[in-house]
């Protein structure tokens, strides 16, 4: 029997009748939530995890075929929830993890109370003029080319594009290091799964209410994408952040905490 | 279905293929392990919990009849292990939790790799001249009397007797506060369960190898008791600590860590 807790390096802390679970973005692990998650320990059971292949997950369980689909990552989330007997959970997902949370909530909605989607995108590739995803297919393929030929060069290029906030180079450095500490083959597979998935048709199938946090000047999930998600996701709220870039939980943790708290309060979850 | 994770306020941290689980003594909760447990996070999955009625456990699930037996506390430990799918676990128990770990290991030995028993006592009451437990029955009854009439007075009396190390009054204060923050009725029941249990006949039934940590000048579990446990517990090692009092994990955490590490290394568990 697979030990789910170790497979995903699941960490449980905090105290409260309801659980809040945080999922990290591409090339990242649970450490990225360290400025935000501890805030919720006072009133919630907090669950953190690493996707297989990332952070301190059990990399021996990585299977390229399995993890070529976001659905497999969603299944892992549901297995963690099952292992911990979680229901009525607030799932906070950054970037690709927001889409993973969406897919998991479609499969087992009873596990979820609310979704908090930080920089979600159902489809990264433009289909002009109908859909603005933010990336041309050719540009993305060029990025994968760079990833193959010069992984470190790719990480050095992508990290500042994702993070912005150039006045705080330590943030970009951390993201770069996180990319670089991931196995390059796994990173490439995960990047392909992330950037070539098209989950636009899944959005209307979501029944769990959600909050979309949309950053300013986000090159990965631009405003058009956040607004698209809001239009197609039933029962969603969209909030525009002051934060810039694609990682507000790292660059602007106070605002991220504040907006999540406001949303939970409006929904009667915290006092 | 009872949520075991919340019932016992289970916290999971750390990273490693093997789990080390810490159980707290009478009137205490997992916070008491805060000087020792984090050391093991680098190489182990660390599991902390609060017994029902203590700390941040779900006190609504406290049942005086059920918890009048140490076996029920042992059953809870096994339920936590089942919920987390734990096997081959190192269980570190302080005081009454060492006996709880022993009872759990008799029921489901396959869950346990090793037991670390900090100040264990299978029987607190003297049966002179055959057995030195450390307490006269009359003295204990006087203590329960005080507990009924003046709970705070009782806590003020017992805390320094347990802790020793009078040069560090903050330690005694913490123990006193822990006693005082426990519901007095639950504390009295738990004290009765703890101090009036006689588990001497269970010791020879243990098959899991164990380490006994025996403090100097321990008024709760004196040296005679540690040596009795060692004689009757198959495959046990006894180590005499420099630490004085009954709570070396609080008063002498470095030595406690060091001796546990040495034992685990001798048994091939850590490098």
From TrEMBL, chains A, B:
Keyword Hydrolase on entry: yes
Gene3D superfamilies tied to this protein: alpha/beta hydrolase
Domain AB hydrolase-1: 29-139
Boundaries of every Peptidase S33 tripeptidyl aminopeptidase-like C-terminal domain copy: 205-266
Keyword Zinc: no
InterPro entries documented for this protein: AB_hydrolase_1, AB_hydrolase_fold, Pept_S33_TAP-like_C
Molecular function terms from GO: hydrolase activity
Keywords: Hydrolase
Coiled coil location: none
Similarity-based family: Belongs to the AB hydrolase superfamily.
Name listed for the protein in its UniProt record: Alpha/beta hydrolase
Organism of derivation: Anaerobacillus alkaliphilus
């Amino acid at each position: 029997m697979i030990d789910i807790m170790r497979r995903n390096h699941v960490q449980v802390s905090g105290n409260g009748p309801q659980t809040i679970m945080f999922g990290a973005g591409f090339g990242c692990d649970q450490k990225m939530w360290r400025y935000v998650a501890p805030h919720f320990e006072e009133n919630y059971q907090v669950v953190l995890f690493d996707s297989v292949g990332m952070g301190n997950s059990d990399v021996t369980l990585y299977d390229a075929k399995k993890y070529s689909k976001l659905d497999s990552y969603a299944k892992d989330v549901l297995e963690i929830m099952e292992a911990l007997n979680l229901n009525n959970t607030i799932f906070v997902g950054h970037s690709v993890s927001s889409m993973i949370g969406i897919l998991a909530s479609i499969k087992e909605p009873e596990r979820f109370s609310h979704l908090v989607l930080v920089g979600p995108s159902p489809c990264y590739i433009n289909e002009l003029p109908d859909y603005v995803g933010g990336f041309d297919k050719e540009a993305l393929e060029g990025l994968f080319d760079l990833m193959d030929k010069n992984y470190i060069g790719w990480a050095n290029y992508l990290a500042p594009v994702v993070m912005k906030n150039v006045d705080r180079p330590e943030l970009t450095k951390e993201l770069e290091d996180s990319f670089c500490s991931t196995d390059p083959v796994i990173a490439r597979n995960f990047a392909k799964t992330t950037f070539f998935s098209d989950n636009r048709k899944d959005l209307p199938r979501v029944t769990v209410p959600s909050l979309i946090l949309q950053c300013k000047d986000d090159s990965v999930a631009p405003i058009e994408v956040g607004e698209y998600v809001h239009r197609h996701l039933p029962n969603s709220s969209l909030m525009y952040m002051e934060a810039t870039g694609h990682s507000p939980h790292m660059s602007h943790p106070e605002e991220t905490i504040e907006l999540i708290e406001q949303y939970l309060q409006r929904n009667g979850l915290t006092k």
